[in-house]
Amino acid sequence: MKSFKAFVVNKTEADFSAEIKQLNESDLPEGDVTIRVVYSSVNYKDGLASIPDGKIVRTYPFVPGIDLAGTVVSSTDASFRKGDEVIVTSYELGVSHYGGFSQYARVPKEWVVPLPDGLTMKEAMAFGTAGFTAALSVQRLEESGVTPDKGPILVLGATGGVGSLATSILVKNGYDVIASTGKESEHDYLKKLGVKEILSREDLLPEKIRPLDKQRWAGAIDPVGGKALAYALSTIKYGGAVAVCGLAGGTNVPTTVHPFILRGVNLLGIDSVYCPMEVRQKLWKRMANELKPTNLLEDIGNEVTLDELPDILSNILKGKIKGRNIVKL
Ligand SMILES: NC(=O)c1ccc[n+]([C@@H]2O[C@H](COP(=O)([O-])OP(=O)(O)OC[C@H]3O[C@@H](n4cnc5c(N)ncnc54)[C@H](OP(=O)(O)O)[C@@H]3O)[C@@H](O)[C@H]2O)c1
Questions:
Q1: Looking at residue 286, what is its pLDDT?
Q2: Tell me, what's the pLDDT at 261?
Q3: Which of 39, 105, 229, 264 could form a disulfide with 125 if both were Cys (CB 3.0 to 4.6 A apart)?
Q4: What DSSP string describes 101-160?
């Protein structure tokens, strides 16, 4: 392995830097599987990892990037062989272990998922952690009995990574999607993804949130949190469920027990990071088949270079990103 390029952040008492640098094999962390990274992708957490006070990175210098797809260069474990195509997301990747914004990576074997048939490496990164989280949210809604015949599903933050993928996966699987977005300029994008109706962010933020309001949706997927989640809970139909997966709009949820005890509403907690490997592998297989949106690369995935990464990272923190950015290494 010659020297290779990586996006490196560094923080000292006096200074913070985020730049593309040349690294060597000796810079890679310990691990069983060495991977030539072909694609990575940009998630909200990566935005936080690229600023001085994002509270994601634990030690510096550091290579962020919570997602990667690539080919195995070498492995000390027999389950992976040179040339195998693999996906790595979650665990400590891009948080305390050098991540995917690098042409090479080395990780523990326990974190590696074989690329399933039916999915290219680029498609896997169009999904990435955001898409895996969206798919897990849909799967949890299914498991709690929220099927397409039960009524429409509300998707919050619908133009973002989790939101776009949640919308497209639901549409592909026969659900009616009501999308909420803060971006008036992206209504055509959401219509292209197949949503039935578009609401503004303000529509979900009435001045007073009642404990129980008119029953409107069978379920919701919520990467936003905050007051909008409280409103979603008050408007879910009897026996419905909300998959809570993010905090783009805040962490405090001013709700009451009423939706849970009077309407049997379920709150589904979604964590992609420590999702058990058995569930993870099965879900990636579903994502390569019935959960793969027809418009994944055409409408949602946007390929960018390592040089374009700093701008994308800054925009994701401002809530300005539409869909998913796939980084070509
Ligand atoms: N649970 C997990 O394992 C897991 C995994 C991945 C991500 N997440 C979390 O999910 C969230 C979304 O991640 P992402 O990668 O999809 O980010 P993203 O692409 O930036 O999407 C977030 C979207 O939320 C909306 N939004 C932003 N600021 C908002 C605000 N102040 N109030 C209301 N809505 C706002 C925007 O959509 P509109 O403009 O369309 O409204 C934005 O595009 C983040 O909080 C992330 O940490 C959790």
A1: 98
A2: 98
A3: 39
A4: SBSEEEE-GGGEEEPPTT--HHHHHHHHHHHHHHHHHHHHHHHTT--GGG--EEESSTTS
Amino acid at 37: V
What's the rounded Cα separation, in Å, for the pair 168 and 20?
A: 33
Cα-to-centroid distance, 297 and ligand 1 (Å) = 20
- CA 136 to ligand 1 center in whole angstroms: 16
Separation CA 276–CA 284 (nearest Å):
12
> Whose CA is closest to atom 11 on ligand 1?
246
- Contact indicator for 127, 165 with CB cutoff of 8 Å: yes
Expressed in angstroms and rounded, the spacing between residue 316 Cα and the centre of ligand 1 is: 9
pLDDT of residue 319: 87
| Closest ligand 1 atom number to CA of residue 316 | 20
User: Which region, left, alpha or beta, applies to residue 250 given φ > 0 means left and ψ of -120 to 50 means alpha?
Assistant: left
Question: What is the pLDDT averaged over residues 86-95?
Answer: 98
Q: What is the β-pairing status of strands 16-23 and 266-269? A: unpaired
- pLDDT in the model for residue 19: 96
Cα of 156 vs centre of ligand 1, distance in Å, is 9
The enclosing H or E element of 16 equals strand 16-23
Atom of ligand 1 nearest to the CA of 320: 43
- The amino acid at residue 232 is A
Contact 266, 290 (CB under 8 A): no
Report residue 70 CA to chain centroid gap. Answer: 18
In this structure, which amino acid lies at residue 74?
A: S
pLDDT in tens, 256-292: 999 999 999 999 999 999 999 999 999 999 999 999 9
